[in-house]
Amino acid sequence: MANSPTGDSVIGRVVRLLNAFDRQQPSMTLSGLAHRAALPLTTAHRLVEELVKYGLIERDPDGQLRVGLRLWELAARGSRALTLREIALPYMEDVQAAVHRYTTLAILDHGSVLYLERLSAPDSALENALDAGHIAQRAPVHSTSSGLVLLAYSPSALQEEVLAGPLEKVTGETITDPQVIRRHLAEIRQRGYAAIPGIAVKEWTGIAVPVFGAGNNIAAVLNATVPRGETNVPFTLPALLTAAHGISRALGADSGPARPRRR
Amino acid sequence: MANSPTGDSVIGRVVRLLNAFDRQQPSMTLSGLAHRAALPLTTAHRLVEELVKYGLIERDPDGQLRVGLRLWELAARGSRALTLREIALPYMEDVQAAVHRYTTLAILDHGSVLYLERLSAPDSALENALDAGHIAQRAPVHSTSSGLVLLAYSPSALQEEVLAGPLEKVTGETITDPQVIRRHLAEIRQRGYAAIPGIAVKEWTGIAVPVFGAGNNIAAVLNATVPRGETNVPFTLPALLTAAHGISRALGADSGPARPRRR
């Protein structure tokens, strides 16, 4: 593999280029891209030309670069993210229809919460407040109800890895004491859901329930976000539990009550 | 760029590897992957090791390889496919709720129909018959109502390129005579939709309506598929036109009637 003077391989440099694009900045000039990817302009130019040739990066009519449709196509066709999302989507629509709340599906990946899907009324007030819930965005595990549910049903080794930190304070109420988090995880396993106000966004409460797959292992988490302080949890929770049970069944979890199993 | 003896660059070989995965075969062994990508096993091994390191390819516990979640994440974050899909999804749900039909959103890309989203009842009989309508799958332009709508509102040069063929017969009723297709395109522009039975799957009719974006250019096509011979078109078409109008408005097309403009 041809390595650059900095030791990066071609694949490593391509990943740095693609990683420079995000929701806040989905398109940019070549020099902007080189800067964000921390690559020399000549290197970026040469790689981008080839990525454009294969459709992995696209050039807008005004010369701005963006992630190519072909990359999405390659990624989506065989992806387990998409399989899970396709299975979950009808059930998420049911939740959305029943409770009209911002609803997300997420998994635990490389130590953070990765959002695979979200449904939201176009004028959702939460939409702007909560960037993390957007598709393909990540959030810290300890700072969302979704993350804490995923963690509660994960193997102890993974729990300890996350609890070893760093545990950033996302809001003033984000729980960063490993002992307090451990108590929450135990409570989540006992109750079968999490509904912890203010840890991700001050004014909102995420209600999160586990989705199980084959072998009754945790496969994903379904979350609806409700305004804090309202009595929305008792109304929203049964809708989420119902949908999560449906998704779990579709994923091949044991039938029977959706009650989570103690580890 | 380090080229192989066959002239492929690293990026070219990576694309060949990723392209080997699809919906029918989302996971495979290293030797299976090397074979499908037409790469020497040693080359495939070296590249796959590095792709796994970056999460672009994942190795299942049983050693099978599949497209990595990280690739999906990189592709999804800045992608215009996802933006369009996110905007369209609520309107697609409205159609689904109203008419309970297999509903897809597609665009024209590199001379074929690329499906960005689909909604379907889990037990849809069509699901198995129509592989093309799955997310990130492609279909020939001339053999679907969606493709003909996309073509009808495309520039003449692109139309002629597609009509120059090859025009494969997907079913016995697929229209392959360029003159007949031209008449259909004129009729679609006049009517504002396509509903041509049997050209993609013998027993079904795709009903397709255009979605316009900024400058009232064609941006996508919305399609619902109904059993052929039933009187479903008059019932389904208004739901599609309504949703397509909403998506067009959200994409910044001129407000006013959703009537397509003659070129």
UniProtKB/TrEMBL annotation, chains A, B:
Residues 8-69 form the HTH iclR-type domain. Keywords: DNA-binding, Transcription, Transcription regulation. The keyword DNA-binding applies. InterPro entries: GAF-like_dom_sf (IPR029016), HTH_MetabolicPath_Reg (IPR050707), Tscrpt_reg_IclR_C (IPR014757), Tscrpt_reg_IclR_N (IPR005471), WH-like_DNA-bd_sf (IPR036388), WH_DNA-bd_sf (IPR036390). Coiled coil: none annotated. Pfam families: HTH_IclR, IclR_C. Residues 70-253 form the IclR-ED domain. It comes from the Bacteria. PANTHER family: HELIX-TURN-HELIX TRANSCRIPTIONAL REGULATOR, ICLR FAMILY, HTH-TYPE TRANSCRIPTIONAL REPRESSOR ALLR. This is IclR family transcriptional regulator. It comes from Rhodococcus pseudokoreensis. The lineage of its organism: Bacteria, Bacillati, Actinomycetota, Actinomycetes, Mycobacteriales.
